[in-house]
Amino acid sequence: MVPPSVVADVWMESVVQVPSRANETEEFEEHAEKAKTLPATTTNESKLVLYGLYKQATVGDVSTGRPGIFSLKERAKWDAWKAVEGKSKDEAMADYITKVKQLLEAAAASTS
């Protein structure tokens, strides 16, 4: 039989290591605000990656048809969202946070 103190230690480790969904959502929202402060030099490709991840995290899989060929901007946004189709909300949030952090770090490094 496992001593209760060991069970308690293992339980506490799992509680400490796994962030709560509320914390993850809060961090996602904070990084969505930070994304608005990205420099104008941020590439369209990076902006589209963020767009796709944001939509996947907040809406889920794309459920509309692909915009027509003459709607270039809307089509690019749709393609970016479609590229991350199937990711869970949690995965999309985590990837979004990581991408925003990378872009902010790159922006800070380029101004140093």
From TrEMBL:
One of its GO terms (cellular component) is cytosol. It is found in: Cytoplasm, Cytosol. Residues 24-109 form the ACB domain. PROSITE patterns: ACB_1, ACB_2. It holds the Pfam family ACBP. The keyword Nucleotide-binding does not apply. Keywords: Lipid-binding. InterPro entries: Acyl-CoA-binding_prot_CS (IPR022408), Acyl-CoA-binding_protein (IPR000582), Acyl-CoA-binding_sf (IPR035984), FERM/acyl-CoA-bd_prot_sf (IPR014352). It comes from the Eukaryota. One of its GO terms (biological process) is fatty acid metabolic process. One of its GO terms (molecular function) is fatty-acyl-CoA binding. Belongs to the ACBP family. This is ACB domain-containing protein. It comes from Zea mays (Maize). The lineage of its organism: Eukaryota, Viridiplantae, Streptophyta, Embryophyta, Tracheophyta.
